[in-house]
Amino acid sequence: MNEVKIYDTTLRDGSQMRGIRYSIEDKIKIIKRLDKAGIHYIECGWPSSNPTDRELFEKLKDIRLENSIISAFGSTRHYGNSVENDLNIKGIVESGAKACSIFGKAWDLHVTEGFGIPLEENLKMVEESVDYLKKYVNEVFFIGEHFFDGYKQNREYALEVLKRAEKAGADLLILADTNGGTQYFEIGQIIDEVKKIVNVKLGIHCHNDSGLAVANSLEAVRKGIVQIQGTINGYGERCGNANLCELIPNLQLKMGYDILGKKISYLTPLSKYVSEITNLIPPTSMPFVGSNAFTHKGGIHVSAVMKNSITYEHMTPEEIGNRRNILISDLSGKSNVLYKLKEFNMEKMVDEKYLDEILKKVKEFTKKGYDYEGADGSFQLLIKKIINPNLSYFEPIDFRVITEKIDGYGTRTEATNKLKIKGRVYHTVAEGNGPVNAINISIKKGLEEEYPFIKDVNLIDYKVRIVEGMQSTKAIIRVLIESRDEVTGEEWSTIGVSTNILKASWRALLDSFNYYLYKRNERENYED
Q1: Does domain 5-278 fall into CATH 3.40.190.10?
Q2: Is-contact 477 465, C-beta < 8 A?
Q3: H/E stretch holding 97
């Protein structure tokens, strides 16, 4: 079994995805996380193409990595330039990177129509560039750009491009499916043919335009390649690159290759970290590392998973740093509730006699538009109120919101709230930069009279969804909010539903403060 190395190109190829722009600081943060996870090679950019990448390589000279090798990217020398004076080649050398990937055209169509140069001249550009770089860089990887398309159109020329790179001393020949249109069985057949012609070890670089980048890369490994190039979360131009967060677990956990060893448990946190720095929401359905990868909703599934997780899971989520998630909905059974009680550390305080009532309430509220899948705070409150109907830290009476336009000053929003706390009615008024902000401030003002520590709670996210859109402006609105205790760092989600968006927001906020008071009281009683 060949040793397979991972070559990450998130910071270069991945950054070509629409909506992605990394600062130097962003790149350094990601590089350190990739290094911590044990990624073998990190391609950090194209030093001759922009000042940002040049500055990054300068900074990297003072940063010591434990596991990863820094790689630079570039092309073969430009037509008409000598290799010694080509700015692209000089940029790679001056970057100080111990490895580099340079691409050259392997499809004659690109040479004659794209570059408009003789085919032989392209071969010279490949050979001279690799030969020169080998004098200054430890490892030189040659990427045959558009290799598979080139092979299918002009087999002899595509192979000659590889042979010239091999002759010049390339350490690896990377076969690129640049347009992402090659089928997995073609990948295997072509690699078999290439191995008959060249003796240098091979790598693979796949794009996902046909949804096959991962499958094609795995097939290439099966055929003996030793390096996979890809990106975290599959970022990349058009439909993206081969997703390393899918490739690595398949290679290590399914095919038996020791890619990252025990560091594979860093993969889910790495995926989430890169998505945060990139400011993109990761797909919840992403295999292995997605938040839905080990999520169960149907009662029959949950019941089976609780007895033996292998019944509905192909592996344990902890292996790649993920976790199991059980949802509560109208499809839930007792097993869902029991699992959530265990997750909330509430199984000892909830007698089995309450399970039917909890399920009944869940289905009842779901019919009204509630959805507890992302609102654990509201679900815990629902349970607490069933087992203890008198549980209440305050009683909401009503609220009012006024927004008025003031000539020369824009608009002003004011919210009034009435709360009954320990037998006393608190009537508070507050202004905000919008109606929900004003409601939030006015509720807190009332609660602070009896619970001064409520100031530690902050609203950190606010989402609105129309549940029944067919009713136009009379539609049912669902509001989901996320709050945080700034002292402990704990975060929770609560939900509110109404045909009135402000009323739905009011209900979600009330649940949030109720949840905080309940958890704080529980914590203080435990400490006592």
Answers
A1: no
A2: yes
A3: none
